[in-house]
């Protein structure tokens, strides 16, 4: 009886250690979750500020472009006025020269002729003054245009940098997308990564000559959709990402009575995949279905193995 009491007492003594270990584990998990939430919050704030800067740059470029158009119209008006004044100046100069020629030949001017010559000289002086003022205004306008061109070029560079940041941001999420989905889909027959896309062999998803998903294909796409849905929550809503689903067929002419050619079959299979992803919670505006028939084979051979490789569904995360 004494031995039983000692064993029972020993079990009670171990219980506080378990409680401490569980408490420590809970604190560690809470701390990790807190760090993750704070990191997500900081990232959201940074992305929001970057989007505001991008919108401001676009607004400034629009304003400068509008002002530049007005300035160019003003320049054209000034240039037209200069041309008109130049023509008038030439006409008046010709008239004055004619009168002076008459003076040289007659050696004597009437009162009216002398007054006419004086008036022409006065008009010529006024025209020269106007042309000088217009030329100065044109120079100022051209300098203003040059300054605005420089500002627009600078804003264009800033906008390109901002857009490049957005592209790099999408590339980062694309890398995470591939990493997580590769982990989910690894070691599964008929599913592989080729370059920047996931490739599902048609036999994994569809029966031969059909665009209806098989039970096995539905299971595989359910796993894909779950991973994609989780990953898409981490991508900022303002990033213009889209998952493109491409259907591909082999060179063998289709014998099914439902589809007229491999074009219809490949497109119908891509649409079937998109519909399932939508049903599993992926937003429709983030999906696109495309059919390529047999125009983009992975293997140019005419063997059964080559044909099997070419019958596929490809998924690629890209931007709109």
Automatic annotation (TrEMBL):
Q: Where are the transmembrane segments?
A: 21-43
A single Pfam family, by name? OmpA
Q: Which residues form the OmpA-like domain?
A: 194-320
Name the keywords, alphabetized.
Coiled coil, Membrane, Transmembrane, Transmembrane helix
Alphabetical GO CC annotations of the entry are: membrane
| Entry coiled-coil feature ranges | 47-74
* Listed name of the protein: Chemotaxis protein MotB
Biological classification of the source: Bacteria, Pseudomonadati, Pseudomonadota, Alphaproteobacteria, Acetobacterales
């Amino acid at each position: 009886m004494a031995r039983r009491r000692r064993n029972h007492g020993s079990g009670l003594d171990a219980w506080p250690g378990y409680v401490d270990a569980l408490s420590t584990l809970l604190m560690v998990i809470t701390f990790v979750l807190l760090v993750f939430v704070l990191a997500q919050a900081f990232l959201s704030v940074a992305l929001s500020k970057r989007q505001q800067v991008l919108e401001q740059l676009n607004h400034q470029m629009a304003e400068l472009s509008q002002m530049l158009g007005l300035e160019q119209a003003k320049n054209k008006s000034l240039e037209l006025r200069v041309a008109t004044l130049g023509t008038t100046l030439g006409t008046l100069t010709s008239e004055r020269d004619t009168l002076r020629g008459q003076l040289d030949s007659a050696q004597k001017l009437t009162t009216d002729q002398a007054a006419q010559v004086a008036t022409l000289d006065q008009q010529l002086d006024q025209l020269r003054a106007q042309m000088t003022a217009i030329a100065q205004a044109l120079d100022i306008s051209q300098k203003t245009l040059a300054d605005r061109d420089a500002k627009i070029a600078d804003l264009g560079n800033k906008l390109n940098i901002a857009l490049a940041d957005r592209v790099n941001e999408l590339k980062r999420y694309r890398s995470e997308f591939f990493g997580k989905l590769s982990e989910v889909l690894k070691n599964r027959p008929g599913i592989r990564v080729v370059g920047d896309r996931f490739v599902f062999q048609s036999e994994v998803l569809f029966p031969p000559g059909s665009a209806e998903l098989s039970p096995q294909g539905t299971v595989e796409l359910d796993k894909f959709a779950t991973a994609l849905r989780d990953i898409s929550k981490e991508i900022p809503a303002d990033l213009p990402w889209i998952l493109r689903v491409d259907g591909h067929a082999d060179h063998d002419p289709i014998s099914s009575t439902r589809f007229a050619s491999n074009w219809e079959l490949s497109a119908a299979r891509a649409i079937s995949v998109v519909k399932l992803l939508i049903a599993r919670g992926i937003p429709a505006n983030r999906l696109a279905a495309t059919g390529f028939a047999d125009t983009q084979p992975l293997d140019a051979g005419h063997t059964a193995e080559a044909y099997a490789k070419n019958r596929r569904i490809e998924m690629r995360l890209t931007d709109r």
